[in-house]
Amino acid sequence: MQQDIERILIDRHTIANRVRELAEQITADFHEKDELPEITIVPILTGSFIFVADLIRDLPLRMQIRLISVSSYPGKATTAQEAQIGSDLDDLPASLAGSHVLLVDDILDSGQTIKLVSEILSAKNPASLKTCVLLRKQREAAMQQPVDYVAFDIPDEFVVGYGLDYDDYYRNLPDIVVLKSDVVDDA
Ligand code: IMP
Ligand code: MG
Q1: For position 73, what pLDDT does the model report?
Q2: 111 C-beta closer than 6 A to ligand 1
Q3: CATH of 14-157 among 3.40.605.10, 3.40.190.10, 3.40.50.2020, 1.10.3720.10
């Protein structure tokens, strides 16, 4: 695994510091809305699982977690395909009236995942809907999709680690890295 790494883009300490900082900002923003805010976190699986696990432990707010899965990078794809929504979206409550929802994803690339899930959540009439991503790629499609919280803006490169995968591997790497080109066969 280590021999497949071309370079570390964001190391674990930088990630931890920034996640803590972002959590403070989110907490302050929710407190501004409501003295005792109650929120619903909607993490998009699988890529956001490590980010969300770290983030929520720095959010001292009363919350419920509703996991959903969407995949737009099946298998060895390193460019976005059409987003596929998992059936667990059906498990979301029919109405989110009264809930302050925070949608969390790993990376904003083509923007279609966040856009699709935001539309589905908005239709459930939440009290508010905020979006949070760990990474945002510096490409036009990503910059055009509005999001409320971004931990890091990164170059338009394929990255893995800290939850992000290539063919479902490398999610356990603690740093966010770029793989060697001979490892990634963009089929
Ligand atoms: P979007 O719908 O194109 O914005 O893509 C978002 C999803 O594609 C993310 O939730 C990831 O699962 C996946 N993705 C996009 N870029 C990368 C990458 O560089 N590495 C790993 N997965 C990625
Ligand atoms: Mg994903």
Answers
A1: 64
A2: yes
A3: 3.40.50.2020
